[in-house]
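Protein modeling request. Please complete all fields; requests missing the sequence field cannot be processed.
Requester role: graduate student
Desired output: 3D structure, token encoding
Chains: 1
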Amino acid sequence: MSGQQIGKEGLLSKLIDLDINADTIDHPAVFTVEEAIPHVAHLDGMFAKNLFMKDKKKKLWLLCAPHNADVKLNDLCKMVKASGSLRFADESVLLEKLGLRQGAVTLFGLINDTNKDVTLILDSRFTENVYPKIHFHPMVNSATTGITSEDLKKFIEHTGHKPIIVKLD
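Delivered output (169 residues):
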């Protein structure tokens, strides 16, 4: 990406500009969903699991699903017709494309993917108003931001990404 990448404050400002009602809480830095749950369990809604991956042809993928979804990468690969298998992408690619570090992977990073190099895979429950709020890291792993499904759709539309919707267990 050329130019300055958007961080936490820039993201929160952009959410306001987009008329997205976001609730953000700060907490200690966490590197896994399991570490995050004690800090977000009191929040109304679902904490998201976000996986940044690449396939055999180095196409980049970002999966966003409920934190408790059973993600089988082989099955997911077939669902989205990825080339070969899906595996985690290097942190250098994550930083270059989404402006994120390991432990802070978030759908909000798509705001930095102006070239649309990353394909978003979104669990269908995140588009169907199943949860009052969906919680993501706001570009850093020391905070959590919650938005509604409708606002999630608005944010994705703003980034210009066309998600592949999947049904996970």
